[in-house]
Amino acid sequence: MRLRIVVLFLVGSFSGLAQSQNWVETAPGIWKLSVGKPEAYNLLTAAESKPNTEALTKLGKTGFPIAKDDISVRVEGGKTYLRLPLDRGEQIFGFGLNFQTVHQRGKILQLHMDHYGNKDNGRTHAPVPFYVSSKGYGVFVNSARYINVYAGTAVRQDSKNPPKVQDRNTDKTWEARPYSDAVEMLVPAEGVDLYVFGGPTPMDAVRRFNLFNGGGCLPPRWGLGFTQRVNRLYSADDVQKEAQEFEDRKYPLDFIGLEPGWQSKSYPCTFEWDKGRFPQPGLFVKTMLDRGIRINLWTNPYVSPEASIYPKIAPYTGSHTVWVGAVPDLTMPQAREIFWGKFASDHIDIGVSGYKIDEIDGYDFYLWPDVATFPSGLSAEQMRQTYGLLVQKQSADLFHQRNQRTYGLVRASNAGGSSLPYVIYNDYYSHEDFITALINSGFAGVLWTPEVRASKTSEEWLRRFQTVCFSPMAMINAWASSTKPWSFPDVAEQIKEIAQLRMKMMPYWYTEFAKYHFEGTPPFRAMNLEDGFQTEAKKEVLTASLEENPYAEAVSKEIKDQYMAGEYLLVAPLFTGQTTRKVILPKGKWYDFYTGKFAGDGEVITVTPGLDKIPVYVKDGGIIPMMPPLLHAPKPDQKIDLEIRHYGEKPAQSRLYDDDGETFNYEKGQYVWRIITVERQKNGQWKGLVSNPEKGKPDTIGKVTWRFMTSP
Ligand code: GAL
């Protein structure tokens, strides 16, 4: 059902230049305003994303969340000017995958696809032009251009809420950055589609954004297991030996990533197997599959003049090269056919499970420059903002056509990409900032992995490993370091335990990803999206001390080091050198994940968990379905015994998602949400129940054991 409620509005603040506003409700709770002449090529067309209208309808109706006469838009001199209001006390989040900050109010950014360069200035792997307000709405600018953002920094003459003029000579409270009441954006194009997402909560706005992009991706079950990326020059024999070692030592392993050396030439690439290291690729991939391990291939898209596809694809490539390799214009059907045809025949058809698509984000000295031209006529800028979307969508389609799910890695994405089965990574390797990125990924409609590579100490190794196991992709990227999970013998057992915990939690992770897919709820996200955790930037409480008023911290301070993992879990990592930390527990009771003991309620606690544990807390009434620590994800028809854990004092109703875990049959209704109920009986004991399987629907649940973690 398409709702078309048209509201005509004329804004006076820009005198003659203002455009009348014709907001159209394109789906329940989502409004679009076409400003000027929007370009035909944009983020959503590159991603080919389609809204999940059914799920959006289920989310229900809500009112337009912003005062319309406080929004103004105009086109002048070939550029689009946008202004949206900001209240005092309103905080904003998002604007892409930031690494050092969660609060975006007060920022000046240029949203520009790039490798992250140690500054939250808009240049990042997912420069998503979407922001979420603590007041419970979202704003999205659908443009494949570099967008300048003034997020509550500039003061206009016609401001409705102007700051007071102060005299610096005499007034000690004079501010160098006076209060600003607007987010203003400049898009270098003659028009743009502007979208507003309704609430009422910030989480609702995020859900609407994700569902508008088609819903989050649903990885295959094996994607949520453990993955090891091996040394870049490993041969087929080396890889098999490594897999054997995982098995002998009983460390879980679902897929292995091959780094550049699987190709005969790389940087630029041939996309062909190296005959020396991999003499029989088909046999190699099959042997690995037979032992339950999938193969993921690294590549960048730059075509070596020595690649067999080079002569054919050359006419469909850009004017400039990357490492002297040609850049396919993947908006052209001819280029797509040649490029992906090679991937299909040489990799996917012999059983390769997915890709890591590297180097499409930037670093200006490597990437095509903005003066490059492409045969389709699209600009270098448009190509740069969307190349990550193009490769994700087009490679994902190859798997979709084979009714086979994939899950891989990519270094560039953008709005529209939520449903694409890829996780972003980079080379930056700051553990703290990797966690902040994980928090921000939930505002940007993307997934992020705080990958583990190498470490100076076993403490660092274990701390990093703990966090990657509570992220979208549990991975060691040993392309240069050749590290293995057991590389630090003094913590090898602890590493194994946490890798096994990752496997045990697969039913939980899988269900949380299903919620991402069907309901738009990001599986990893900021505390600011959690009920009981207020987000208003209340100035008056900024100075309150944690101990006097613990809740003050939660409403005012930027929280960059703890996050929500799925519906019930709060994760508070420790970093090298830390033995103790503060954890902010939102209102409501929280319980220790490992012991089930009460941990706190709307307060700041100080914890000293020891090196072995990453602090994790469970919401009252939380249900965590777990399975045995298998070495590989269950097969489609495999029955799996469950241990279902209940935490806290509240009775519970929860859902467990089930399907075959590998195909797209869920798109045809082949899935089921099993209902888990935990109630207290007359004798005071807890009793748990899982709803019956549905006829003709998948049922992978074997024997169920209950664990009531919090004793009555
Ligand atoms: C980098 C990438 C690394 C690794 C390496 C291989 O660009 O971020 O993860 O794949 O290339 O050369």
Quaternary assembly:
single chain
Q: Roughly what is the average pLDDT, rounded to an integer?
A: 94
Q: Which residues form runs of ≥5 with pLDDT under 50?
A: 6-16, 535-555
Share of helix, binned:
10-25%
Second-tier CATH architecture of one domain: Sandwich
Sheet with the most strands: spatial strand order: 1-2-3-13-10-9-6
Q: How many H/I helical runs?
A: 13
Q: What is the CATH topology classification name of one domain? A: Immunoglobulin-like
Q: Give the termini separation.
A: 48 Å
**Beta-strand segment tally:** 34
Name the shape in a single word.
globular
Instruction: Note the beta-strand portion.
Output: 25-35%
Secondary structure class reads alpha+beta
Q: Cofactors and ligands present?
A: beta-D-galactopyranose
CATH superfamily of one domain: glycosyl hydrolase (family 31)
Radius of gyration: 25 Å
Query: For this structure, what is the CATH class of one domain?
Result: Mainly Beta
Structure description:
- The chain has 13 helices and 34 strands.
- It is of the alpha+beta class.
- Among the domains are: 189 residues, Sandwich (Immunoglobulin-like); 96 residues, Sandwich (Immunoglobulin-like), CATH 2.60.40; 86 residues, no CATH class.
- The strands form seven sheets. It has a seven-stranded antiparallel beta sheet with strand order 1-2-3-13-10-9-6.
- The radius of gyration is 25 Å and the shape is globular.
- It starts with 5 loop residues before the first strand and ends with a strand.
- The relative contact order is 0.10.
- Beta-D-galactopyranose binds next to loops.
